[in-house]
Structures are given as C-alpha cells and as structure tokens.
Amino acid sequence: MNRKLIGVSIASALLFTSACSNETSSKGTAPEVTTEVAASSISGTSALEQQARVKLKTLMSMMDQARDKNIDVAREETLVWFSEQFLKFANWDEANPDTIEKAFGYERYYAADKEQLAADLPDFERRKVVEMLDKGIDVLGQELRGEIKRRPVNKVDWQGTKAGDNMFISNGKPIFPYDYFSKTVGQPLTNTDVYNDHLGALYHGGENLYPVDHDRAINSFLLKEDGTFDQELMKELTDIPDTNVGFLYYWIMGIPEWVEKQEPEVRIGRSLFTGFDIDNPLARDVWGKIIRRTGELTKGKKVTELGFVLANEPHWFAEKDHWTYRFQEMNDISSYTLNNFRRWLEDKYAGDLASLNTNWGSSFASFDKVDIEIPIDSALQGQPIWYDWTRYNMDRSTNWFTYVQNELHSVNADADTHIKIMPRMFMENARSGGIDTEALAELTTMVGHDAKSFGSKNIRPGKSSKWLEKYAYHWGYVAMFHDFMESVAPDKINVNSESHFLSSGQWRDLDTRTSYVRSVYWLATLLGMDANMGWFWARDPDGSPEDRLEGDLDFFDPGLGGAYAGSNNMQPHVTNEVTQVMYDLNSFSEEIIELREQPRPLRLFYSETTAINIDDYMTKGYELYEALFFEGFPMGFVTKNIIEKQDNNSWDTVVVYNNEYVNDAEFDALQTYLSAGGTIIVDAKSLTMNEYGQKRAKKLVAGKGKLITLDADADIAKIKQLALAEVADNMPDVVIAEDNGVAHKTTTWRTVKQPNGSYLVNILNVGHNTAKLDLTLRNGKSVAITDIMTGNTLDPKFELASEGVLLLEVTPQ
C-alpha cells in the first residue's frame, strides 16, 4: 500500500457504524440495553467509549450469570481488563497528540502520515475495544446457552512454576509462561497494573539500551576499578522480590572507562550488542568476577527459574559492506583475536604451514606471521580463507559463551542458561556473523532465541515479502527454526526471550489480524516454544509511554525509537488475543506437549560447512522443507553431532540435499549411520568436496543400510516422492485431503493416537483462503469428530478459515 494512503485507510477503518445491535442474540440471556439509552447517561466521553461502556456492563452481567453456573470466566476477566486499560489509553492518546505524533514520526514507515495517524489512533483503539467486547459477548453467550463448552483456563502459577526436564511445570501440569520483554522500565515489579495474569508476571532483569546501567540488567558497571562492586547498582538485582519466577540478563553492551584506560584495545572487535572484544583478557576477568558474584547472590532465587540470558542477540559480522559496519561492529580485530586465530589455524592445519599457504595462496613464514584483513571481502566466499575465518569466528564466540557459562556454574551449578539467538543467524544465508546455532543450543541448559514471524509485508524498502504470495504469514520462519532447534536439543526447555511475532523493525501492521496472532503463537508453541516474552510492553499504567520513550529519543540501537508506533501498545485486540491464545494453550498444555513430543521420521541433513561456503544454502534448504511440511508429520534435521550423540533409531530416513561441501567428520558420521543400517537419500552433487573445495575421493557405501543416489536432474518433487515412500510406514493414520483453491498445500496437521483408540489431531491453515478439508483414516474406517475446544461435533468434511486453528478428537467408528 502507498504510505500516503495509510492515513486514509485507517481513517476508513475507524468510521463509526451507527447501527448498533443488541449485545447478544435473541436466544441470549444478557440484559437488553440500547446504546441510545446508555449513552444519554454518560457525559464527557466519546460515542465509541460510551458504546464500549455499555458492552462492558453487558459482559460483566453475563459473567455473573456464568459464575452462578460454575462457568469459568477467566477469559472474560482478561477481556474486561484490556478493554478498561485501552479505553484509558485512548483518552491519554487523545489528550497528548504531540507525543503520539512524535512516536509515529520515529518510525520512517509511518512518518509521512504521523499527524493523521495520531489523530485517528484514539478512536481506532476504542473501536477495537468495541469489537473485542462484541466477540466476547457472543462467545460467552454461546456457552451460557449450552452451544459450546470451553475448558477452564489453567493459569500460570507465577510464584510456583518450576523448570522441569524439558518443560515448565505449574500445579502438576505443563505450562507455557508468557510476558512482555522490556516491560515499562521504571515501574516496580510489584505493580499489579503491569505484572498480572493479563500481561504476564515474570520478574526479570530487563534490557538496557542506555550506555550505562539502567533497569535490572547485570552489566559491566557493577565492578569498580578497585575490585569492589557498586552496591547501589547491585541493589537493582538484589532488591528483586523473591516472589515471582523470572529470568535475568547479562547485558554486555557497555564497558567502564577504567577498563578502557587499562586496555586500549578493549573495544576493537566490538559488536552491536557486545561493547567489547570477547577475546580481551581484562574484559574476561571483569565479567568473570561479575558473573561469579551475581551467580552467588541469585542462587536459588525464583527470578532465575527461567534461566540467565547470557547475551542479547549476539553477532559479530565481520563481512565488508554489512549493515552492522556503521554501528562499529567488527571494523577491525584486536591483537588478541588475531593471535587466537593464529593458534586456531595452527591446530586446524596440524602445524602444516605449507597446506595453509597452498590453501590461501599465501607465503607466511610461520603461523605467528599469519595476517588477515577484517572485515573480510565477501568475494572470498567459497575460498579457504573465507572458510577458515568464518569457522574460527563461530568457534571463538562459542568459546566466549562456554567461559561465561562455566563461570556461572562454578558458583551456581544448577543455574539454567540460554542465549537470545536471532533466528536470522540460522534462517538466512549469511554465515559471517560468528554464531554457530547448533553449538550454542548444545552448550546452554535451555534453548534460547528471539524467533519472529511476519504477519504482513516487510515494511522496509527493497525487502522481500515473497512468502506473502502463497501464505497468510511467514510461518516458515517460525517452523523451520523451531524444528531445527528441537532436533538439536529435544530434551531442553525452549525460551523465546523476545518474541517478535507482533512487530519488529522489519514489519508491523496497525490493524494486525487476531487470527494471525492466534495461529503464530499456536504454531510456535506446538513446535517447541515453552515460554515467550513478547516485544514489547511500553505503556505505563496511566497510558503514557514508558520512561525511555519520552522526550527526544536518541538510542545507539535505532530499533527502539520507532518500535512504539504500530505496535501492540496501540492495538487492544492484538494484546488481548495474545493472552487469550496463551490461556487456551495452557488449558490444553498436556495435549500440546503430547502432539509436540513425537518422533520425526524424516530428517534433513544440515551442514554448517556448506552453509559457510555458498550463498544460497538456506534458501534451497527451505524449499525442500516447505515441500515436505504439509504432509501431517513432524519434520526434523540431523547433523554430524546429532548422528553421533542421539539415538539413530528415532528417525527412518535422512535426506542429503544441496550439501556439496562437508568436512571429513561430517562425511564419516553419515557413513557410520548408513553402515549401521540407516537409509540415506543423497543428491548427485552432495558430499563431493571437503571444506576447502577439494574433491573427495570417498563415496558413501550402503553397508547394512539403504543408499538412494539421485540422478543429477532430480528436482525437489522427485526427492519428496522418494522421501515420503521411505517413511510411508510412519505416516499418520489420520489423512486430510485439502481443497484451498490454489495449487499448493496450506494446511498442516499433527496426530497422536490415544490409549482408547481415538486420535488427538491439531490442524492449522496458514493459507490466504478457506480450506475445504476431508478427514479420513488410512484404514478406511469412518470417524466421529469432536472439536475439543468447543465440545461441538464436526462432519468429516468441513472448512477451516485462513489462519484457523483446530484441536480435535477423532474416534474411529
């Protein structure tokens, strides 16, 4: 859409419809109160707020009736709370147009229309509240009339939730904690207007976007030059009430001046969110002391139940012309980093300097004389020097996080850890950022990330939204990343410490679909997400933006200033839907876990070696993943480490596609799996070269296994056909035929057989169109179908709307 038309479009969406229907149908039990009568008794408020107040009164009356019938109204209590909050927020926004205009102005996508958007926002929020209440009245009316039966909400026990082996447990059941990242800086943790069941109530040491300490983050400024700790700053940590469970951050962006005076190189090789050289000995010493002290002080505290976040979105892009260069990321490397690289090369080449010189086309006299230009030229990708530096850059960051975790565990052995890994470090083709996603997921005790999706087009000029041609939202960015992480670490809790499902620097939609919100949170949780902290909650209880977003915004990170505009802070329907879907997921937590914890019969081979060497590895890998995703079974991945460390009987077949470069250890792992009886499908090009592009003499030999080698012209359709044939015995008993009006599938489902012979089935439609579905059993038996979330029956042939979610019990007849 042309940005000049945005204000007009929103204004059209905000038109007040004068025809007001009664709050429930003629079958309902709600009192009949007309808008006209109610409005006459309310003065000083807008017509939309008057309408909302009438509907609130109606809903609360219905809630009283429901309580009399022992019907759970937790969902309606949240709806009422958000309605009241956003009516208050709308009034604040209306009274402070300059502030809201400025907020829109900080986001370049909205800046040209900031005046109109600010003027429209209050009534937009009010109208969304009215729509929310209409929906809530309708649903509760259905339950009061006996037309549906909802399962009572299983609320998070914010005081007693515990981290189990691979899930959080609350009141004896799996639970999925939820909250918002960077919540209203400056508000006390005990403020129930901010910490409650509606917004979430995890206590945490949050984000610091100032160059010095702010909020409850653990940072470099805790340690003084004399070796003592700043007790005032330490109180930000020690004063956190030991009431609610939560998580803590190691915020490693800043470095004290006294460190820089002692170590002039300490900032050489810094990155966007890591303000110092991770190879610097003094920086390591400083952080070792901070980690050990804070680990001791927080040992056994509830605020660490969801773990320590060891870093915020770490990356060290050392590639020329990368966007991070202007933020001084890896503009150079320190003498410490260079010398460590030299030692790494000497080990990698087993002391054979001639081999290095041959590979690099160099003539270094010794490993101590090796030099390299950083940032490295991307034109060198595919050459040995590119591979060596990129692989080392990954290994050195893994070494840093190993050090950090070891320091923590030296004083607090039971402390859980995770790292906020950006999904782009895996999902996008670039591998110059120094992050080995698999290695870090293996290292930490929990899996950590800030996975995101795109609910509408990318708002940045020149950025692709190609996925929108086929699907309602970018489901693949969520699914493929989660399936990889769950394959690497199937027995670890998965924490999204900054979920960008609602907005990000690359996308936002001021009128985000609630169906999208429900679908994306459901999909992520189904595929492994155990806890999430959404980006972001920035309203103080009076409706004003939180402290950091007031005044003139000048952050080192450009993302925060424009983040408020178009976010869920302006969208009552979105914020309410997040909690509503989390209520439903927690009410069916046992079923979700059961659907999640299934074998992944088909595995795609992943090689970091090939990913480093070519520029389209993930693009091509995603095409195969997408082709296989809509067949009713969980997808998975294998790597060298997975083959060596996990039970190979937990999958049937490995597909090796577009993996031309693999090192000898990766090749040997595949051969070992095959020799022991495994099945491998491999394309003609894969496994033909080592990490340096040198031809491999060895070829896979079937041994006790089954080896299917594809012809050079085999396409993805052929690979899919062969792969599905190999896992046919483990395909789901429940089969769904789909007619969605397009040539590609958009409906995905998961099935688990129950002890009584029935099947638990989850279905999601991520397409643009309503899908006509025909559910059958592979054995041909007829079925009876019950929608578990409503208690209603379904015919075997039914429709599922775009972004629809179903949880069914399917019983053979």
Automatic annotation (TrEMBL):
PROSITE patterns in UniProt: PROKAR_LIPOPROTEIN (PS51257)
Pfam families: Glyco_hydro_42
InterPro entries for the chain: Class_I_gatase-like (IPR029062), GH (IPR017853), Glyco_hydro_42_N (IPR013529)
Signal sequence segment: 1-21
CDD domains in UniProt: A4_beta-galactosidase_middle_domain
Molecular functions per Gene Ontology: hydrolase activity
Species: Paraglaciecola aquimarina
Alphabetical keyword list: Glycosidase, Hydrolase, Signal
Designated name of the protein: Glycoside hydrolase family 42
Domain Glycoside hydrolase family 42 N-terminal, chain residue ranges per copy: 327-537
